[in-house]
Amino acid sequence: MTAQEYVETVLHDIQVSSPGQVEFYQAAEEVLHSLRPLLEEDPKYIEHNILHRIVIPERTIIFRVVWIDDAGKPQTNLGYRVQFSSTLGPYKGGLRFHPSVNLGIIKFLGFEQIFKNALTGLGIGGGKGGSNFDPKGKSDNEVMRFTQSYMNELYRHIGQTHDVPAGDIGVGAREIGYLFGQYKKLTGRFEGILTGKNLRWGGSNTRTEATGYGSVYFAENILNANGMELKGKTCTVSGSGNVAIYTIEKLQSMGAIPVSCSDSKGTIHHPSGINIETLKAIKEVNRGSLEEYARLHTDATYVPLHSYPEGGHAVWSIPCDVAFPSATQNELNLVDAKHLVAHGCRLVNEGANMPTTPDAVAYLQEHDVFFGPAKAANAGGVAVSQLEMAQNASMEHWSFAEVDTKLFEIMKNIFNTAHETAEAYGHPGNLIVGANIAGFQKVADAMIDQGAV
Ligand code: NDP
Ligand code: 2IT
User: Fold this and answer.
1) Residue 214 near residue 379, CB atoms below 8 Å
2) Residue 390 CB neighbour total at 10 angstroms
3) Residue whose C-alpha is closest to residue 349's, from 227, 207, 236, 226
4) Residue of 88, 382, 389 best suited for mutating to test ligand 2, as the one with most atoms within 8 Å of CB
5) Is the CB of 355 under 6 A from ligand 2?
6) pLDDT at site 309
7) What pLDDT shows up at residue 430?
């Protein structure tokens, strides 16, 4: 069987066995096709049937979560934890609370996480979880009761050497706090079973900032390798959550000009540069809407989501040198890619997971726009999560500067690994191919070492 036939057989089997899981299929298709140069060179991956094995999670946990709303009524949601791969270490990956969550979305995120975590060079396997619970419009007490009920089931499946969840969309400092408190209540143990914990009780310096800062470090590596730098560059950023906020903060400290942010209702364009204090006050403190930003800064404009024509997103029609999609999957489509190319954008760096649609990626590559793929560009978050696990295990607490320096080095290593691997397999400059092959090879070789399990 040729490499091409093998890849197509596995993808066909996924479609049959996981019908309707479109995001999972999209993620698998991108990874598997890009592995062909490796599979052609070394038959052992086909002989050991690694692809068929790696696309099936080791364990999938789906459970009912019942919680009491403020009116005293029982409400229900679905809870998930997909333990995808423990080949390189304990399952590691975030929890997402968003009404769009379903098994296909959690599987796409868990599948990507395997290779992202391998790329960090640290000993962590891949997993993901979450719920279709929508934290928006809920009181703190409702979020707490939901989160406690979620942990009432999750606690029996996690552990510091087994599975260590963290945050993702809709799961931040507040939710991690409630989850940790409930785990401790149920088990009587204070242990590092979650990352993203508060600095006062077991968290790591720099974890809050890590994904955004790491994404900016990664972009700077790409630009430097091509004779450019972020300093002085106009940057567009989508999203206004954890990743977007700390992308904007680091861009400013490096002398770039981030001019946008967005949320699920609209986009802010602030040509003189986003005011980070205002953004943090609206989103981190008040959990408000970006409409408020335009009221406070009259030289900024606000474009409501549904007022934007052509099926694109307002944020990508803003001229920029570098674009940082940092909100959610498939948020940058072909219409958007055409706008970016027309305005002379040089680099798209993915802060979110799979934010760029496949046709948009192809268009950007055809037009020589540099591309930082998510599983490399946003790996800083999970890398610092592993540093949090290391600090918990050794009962140490490292300074901000110490963790930031390690993060900087990890992002540089990920870039070098992806860059060199792309070149070695005949796709110089293609970091998608480089990241996929390098991440896969690490996991696949270890799977072969560990036997057919
Ligand atoms: P947050 O919940 O902190 O922020 C998410 C942001 O994206 C919000 O501004 C939200 O808008 C917007 N958003 C979410 N869903 C949609 C949607 N369907 N349509 C439009 N806008 C949407 O999440 P994070 O910043 O943590 O995560 C952002 C992305 O980064 C995700 O893809 C996540 O998987 C990825 N990521 C996160 C890491 C982390 O450490 N947190 C690590 C690596 C990747 P609103 O405010 O209106 O809800
Ligand atoms: O997508 C991701 O890498 C995350 N949401 C962070 C996972 C983690 O375990 O820190």
Assistant:
1) yes
2) 16
3) 236
4) 382
5) no
6) 67
7) 98
- Identical fold at 59-189 and 210-368? yes
Distance CA 295, CA 284 (A): 18
Task: Give the number of whichever ligand sits closest to the CA of residue 115.
Answer: 2
Fold of 59-189: Rossmann fold (3.40.50)
Nearest CA to ligand 1 atom 33: 352
Token readout for 349 is: 């760096």
Ligand in closest contact with the CA of 383: 2
pLDDT tens per residue, range 383-429: 999 999 999 999 999 999 999 999 999 999 999 999 999 999 999 99
Over the stretch 235-272, which tens digit does the pLDDT of each residue have? 999 999 999 999 999 999 999 999 999 999 999 999 99
pLDDT in tens, 143-178: 999 999 999 999 999 999 999 999 999 999 999 999
Nearest ligand 2 atom to the CA of 384 is: 10
Q: Whole-model pTM?
A: 0.98
Our answer on whether the CB atom of 385 is closer than 6 Å to any ligand 1 atom is no
In whole angstroms, give the CA distance from residue 421 to residue 440.
11
- The 8-class DSSP code of residue 254 comes to T
Write the pLDDT tens digit of every residue in 331-373: 999 999 999 999 999 999 999 999 999 999 999 999 999 999 9
135 Cβ below 6 A of ligand 1: no
Residue 262 burial class via C-beta count within 10 angstroms: exposed 0-12, middle 13-18, buried 19 and up: buried
pLDDT given for residue 311 in this prediction:
80
User: Atom 42 in ligand 1: which residue has the minimum CA distance?
Assistant: 381
Kindly report the protein residue whose alpha carbon is nearest to atom 31 of ligand 1.
352
Q: Is the CB of 211 under 6 A from ligand 1?
A: yes
Which positions are annotated as active-site residues?
A: 128
Distance CA 185, CA 280 (A): 32
Q: Which atom of ligand 1 is least distant from the CA of 244?
A: 25
From the CB of 385, is ligand 2 less than 6 Å away?
yes
Average pLDDT on 440-447 reads 98
At the second CATH level, the architecture of 210-368 is 3-Layer(aba) Sandwich (3.40)
CB-based contacts of 60, cutoff 8 Å, min separation 6: 80, 81, 82, 83, 103
Domain boundaries, the chain: 3-54, 59-189, 210-368
- The runs of H, that is alpha helices, within 155-235 are 173-187, 207-225
